[in-house]
Design brief:
Blueprint: H1 2-11, H2 35-42, E1 47-50, H3 57-66, E2 70-73, H4 80-90, E3 97-99, H5 105-117, E4 123-130, H6 140-152, E5 171-173, E6 176-182, E7 188-196, E8 199-207, H7 214-223, E9 231-233, H8 236-239
Helix pairs in contact: 5-6
Length: 241
């Protein structure tokens, strides 16, 4: 993902690619260096695109905030608690921080449709499928989708099934069951299932190639500086959806 983002930014006529940092793949001159060691090289950047790991992203954001650099964050794992922590640590802007659970315009549109449908159905469940090297589960998109559904409408469910194996009913995210699948051969896929009396509704978005995320990345990079809030969540913040 990082390599593809770099290539996309470099190819954009109105953007200039700056320093790159990827610990597992750095050259010998940077081997073993930390983000802090490389901070000096980032000072001239206008925007940093952060697509790393949930275990390191918070410290990295502290670095970007300290350098007064706008941050576009594609790292997963941002639940409500972590988002609140980012807002506290980031403080007032500028610079701005934009956290994007999903860079796909289709994925964002599917989440908005699910949010709109929620008040008309008794209950919902989310099934998300990703490649087997994804660092976390559930995905940030799935958690964001579940939280939006719950915020749009209270979930009413009277499920009598007993879990014979713990976790069979999925993880509870804001009262919405979320099921995660991790298999080779998958890029990203999410289904939202709504159930009501006499009907069901399925909203599905399937990604077959990571290139689909690049228009969203470019929109985020171009739009983050104009945001009115120091910390924003969701690609729709720069797409006017």
């Amino acid at each position: 993902m990082g390599r593809l983002i770099a290539e996309t930014i470099a190819a954009a006529d109105d953007l200039e690619l700056g320093p790159l940092y990827d610990p597992p793949h750095v050259g010998e001159d940077l081997a073993g260096a930390s983000i802090g060691d490389q901070a000096e090289s980032m000072k001239e950047a206008d925007v940093v695109v952060e697509v790393t790991d949930p275990d390191v992203v918070m410290e990295n954001l502290d670095t970007w905030r300290g350098l007064d650099v706008h941050a576009v964050v594609g790292t997963s794992g941002f639940n409500e608690e972590r988002l609140a922590e980012v807002a506290e640590r980031w403080g007032s802007g500028p610079p701005n921080c934009l956290i994007v659970p999903n860079f796909s315009v289709g994925g964002v549109t599917a989440m908005r449709i699910a949010e709109a449908a929620a008040p008309f159905f008794a209950a919902a469940e989310v099934i998300e499928l990703h490649h087997d090297r994804k660092a976390d589960a559930p995905s940030g998109t799935a958690m964001s989708t579940a939280e939006r559904i719950a915020a749009a409408a209270e979930q009413h469910r009277d499920v009598e099934s007993t879990e014979l194996v713990e976790g069979a009913r999925g993880a509870d995210v804001a009262g919405v069951p979320v099921h995660s699948v991790r298999l080779p051969g998958i890029v990203a896929d999410q289904m939202v299932l709504f159930g009501g009396v006499g009907e069901t509704l399925t909203i599905r978005h399937t990604t077959t190639d990571r290139s689909v995320f690049m228009p969203g990345v470019l929109a985020a990079v171009r739009g983050v500086a104009a945001l009115t809030e120091p910390v924003s969540v969701g690609l729709e913040s720069v797409l006017d959806l």
